[in-house]
Design a protein that fits this description.
The chain is of the alpha/beta class. The strands form two sheets. A four-stranded mixed sheet has the order 1-2-7-8, with helices on both faces. It has a four-stranded parallel sheet with strand order 4-5-3-6, with helices on both faces.
Amino acid sequence: RGNYDADAIMKTLEALGLNMLFVVGGDGTHSAANAIYATARERGMKISVVGIPKTIDNDISLIDRSFGFETSIEEAQRAIISAKVEAKASINGVGIVRLMGRHSGAITLMASLASNDVDIALIPEIPFNEKAFLEHLDSVLERQGHAVVVAAEGMAEVVLKELQEQHSAQELAKGGATQSISGDIGVYLKSSINEFLKQRNKEHRLVNIDPTYMIRSIPANAGDKVYCTVLSQQAVHGAMSGFTGFSAGMVSTNYVYIPITDIIQAGPRKVDPQGQMWYRLVTSTQQPAQFVASPPQDPGQPLTEAVEDKREEKESDAREEKESDATSEATTVV
């Protein structure tokens, strides 16, 4: 991943007399595998280059999921439970959990949905306004006396972008905001929430939990172990059959071979802001679908109501269309 020298890799493969290369990793690693595959074809080397999707971020497109993702969700819930316990133990307690996901909020979404203990989930795919976020957090504290906030690490870039739009580069450099946000979104949110609640003279206690390495280093669960075993077997079968430039994956519950070039062209997988899973999460947390500065509609409207309004609107349109068709048919008969 990252800086790699395809020429040096090919020379090493030739020196070792290898005719199969299995590249295990995520979106970036598959890009490297694709470069090695292309170089091998240019040189006419008889070698199978095979990818095996492995990333807890689940940011590889086309496949159902990568192995390690289910394990990461399970472990992330432990951190969320701890944040919930700490938050409930104090007046206006806020538990903050920072989860992995530079460009995709998949772990945050699924772990939050599975736990049912999260009040606010923040992912990089969803527009964010800090003031709107803090106001909603305050309403949660007023309602239940505590709150749990889960944020994907990629939110650091989102918040930084918002600050850059609000302040000049000189002000950012003077305040040191760039450095603090780039390092840890959890630390930044803790500082921001603390300042906000102090201004409102509210007694509070904040806890920031970063389970990053606990999540990525624990043994895989049973489901991921089986999935990993099958993927490795599929990869070896493909290479032994003479195929190259493919990745073994599961698509619609079927194990298939996918050209690595297709995976690269599809780009990294991200959470769909209009998708069902995000809607389900927002319904669970009762947070606004987006934290925006000046929403065109009521920002406090629960998503369940928004979805119901949308459903009624569609039903109304369908009835009107049906009545129009009936009128047209009647006119034709006459």
